[in-house]
Write a structure and sequence with these properties.
It is a single chain. The protein is mainly α. It has one domain. Helix 4 packs parallel to helix 8 and helix 8 packs antiparallel against helix 9. It is elongated, with a radius of gyration of 26 Å.
């Protein structure tokens, strides 16, 4: 690391950003069962099990409501095709409520497999480090003490922005895990609506929303890959420009790219929902 205090400030800031980006990269490859050692998942399992009994009771209620609304009279139930249709719907709904958590975890695993495929195709093993170019380091180290004062002010502002953006990114990823846990805990209630034809749209919307949350991880990974390409590109340095202008231009470009990345991550939920028609 350079002995120049301005360079050290920038390098420490980029190290913080890379640390958070690598943490994000690692978290997105974890399943809800593995997150934070599985302690949160154990609590979710207990809540899910408690709500499963309520889901079974609602299953019967939605089933009866569906039968009343879809059959003109109970005489129709005497027909074998109608009776078989009603029985199959109830059996499927019962299976969805009983094994809904396993189905949701399978869907999450499929999305994680897609994420791994994207990572291998991109040829990137981690989040892509943002490093301070040698051109910028050399330009800063050649400055005198008085010239380094405005540089320190510029880098301080840029460092503040970069640090805030890094924590916004990590909070967004943590928020995705919170949503996955909420969906897993409450799943038996909306899944019970599959028992009745008039109410099945609630269960379908629930599963589509859960799938959207799972796919958020894939969108975030894609955004990180694109950012890593930007971060590895060497900056354009104007030989005639002053050092302050050069450093300011580099920091502004870097912060802009990070803003785009954070904005994409923040809008990942909206992007996926638009793609799925939600």
């Amino acid at each position: 690391m350079s002995d120049n205090w301005v360079v050290q400030n920038l390098q420490n800031t980029l190290a913080t950003w890379n640390e958070k980006l690598t943490e994000i990269w690692t978290l997105l490859m974890q399943s809800p069962e593995e997150f934070k050692g599985g302690d949160i998942w154990d609590v979710i399992l207990k809540i899910h099990g408690a709500l499963q009994a309520i889901g079974i009771a609602l299953l019967v209620l939605f089933f009866l409501v569906g039968v009343v609304k879809t059959c003109g009279s109970f005489a129709e139930l005497k027909k074998p095709e109608h009776a078989l249709k009603v029985f199959v719907r109830f059996a499927i709904a019962k299976g969805v409520v009983t094994y809904g958590l396993e189905l949701m975890l399978a869907l999450c695993s499929i999305v994680q497999g897609m994420t791994s495929t994207v990572m291998r195709a991109a040829g990137i093993g981690k989040g892509g480090d943002a490093t301070l170019p040698e051109e910028i380091v050399t330009a800063i180290e050649e400055c005198g003490f008085l010239e380094s004062i405005p540089l320190w002010a510029v880098t301080l502002i840029g460092s503040l922005f970069i640090t805030v953006l890094a924590f916004i990114m990590i909070l967004t990823v943590y928020g995705r895990f919170f949503k996955l846990y909420l969906y897993a805990a409450i799943a038996p209630i909306p899944l019970a609506t599959f028992a009745g034809e008039p109410t099945q749209h609630i269960g379908i919307a629930f599963l589509k929303s859960y799938a959207a949350v799972c796919l958020e991880g894939l969108i975030i990974i894609l955004a990180c890959i694109i950012f890593s390409v930007f971060a590895s590109s060497p900056p354009v340095v104007d030989a005639d420009a002053s050092v302050v202008s050069t450093v300011w231009s580099y920091i502004a470009q870097l912060v802009f790219n990070m803003l785009v990345l954070v904005g994409t991550v923040k809008m990942a939920d909206r992007v996926v929902r638009e793609m799925m028609g939600l």
